[in-house]
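Changelog note: in this version the structure field was regenerated for every chain. One regenerated record is shown below for reference.
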Amino acid sequence: MTALILAGVAATAATDDSNQSFLLRIANWLVELMEIIGPVGAGIAVALENLFPPIPSEAILPLAGIAAGRGLFPLWQALLWATIGSIVGAYALYWIGRALGRKRTRWVFERLPLVKVEDVDKTEAWFDKHGTKAVFFGRMLPIFRSLISIPAGITGMHQGKFLALTAAGSLIWNTIFIMAGFWLGDNWHIVEDISGVLQNVIIAVVALLVLAFIGWRVWSLNREKKIARTGGEDGSAEAPDTEGK
């Protein structure tokens, strides 16, 4: 009975048939997992969500909150295991970054079109300086919450520091959605809808930034080629100095 109720709640959060079917499958799987192994099941689902971003934490976490609200397990256990799952998933990506390392990453980016070595150097320098804030706040942003672990590994962020920042950021994110399910029940999708809007905004901003970078880099390369052909920034070759001859 509990599984049917929770799966039905997940279905109410969807606004179209395809999304409804996807969320319903996730809900059924997660609820069955939680009924078998308790809140550990939520932790496993969250760890997988970190590794496979198409699995939405906005759908997983509220179901854990609803389950806690209906007495399947204590609320603190839902928060604890969801955060443990976040850390496990983040660490897997962190070690992928460590395996890549700076040298391999540089080798890859040096061979990408429109990317210069200076771009890699600037990105690494920025992360060395702002990595603490990037990891902490990145854990609370859709899409980036998973991906931010990779540059942390590439740049060799101290593991203790990475653990603390990931745990803190994940706990905040998980608490918001688990408490939404715990308090709002069937209406938890209100928070999920807001998160969906935020995700769309982030995707749009990133797309615009990528397009702006490509446009600027193409213009810059064309300008450099023109200067190389003409021999000067003003677009004309310098006239030879014949004075005194």
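Spot check on this record: Confidence is low (pLDDT under 50) at residues 3-16, 234-239. The chain is about 80% helix and 0% strand.
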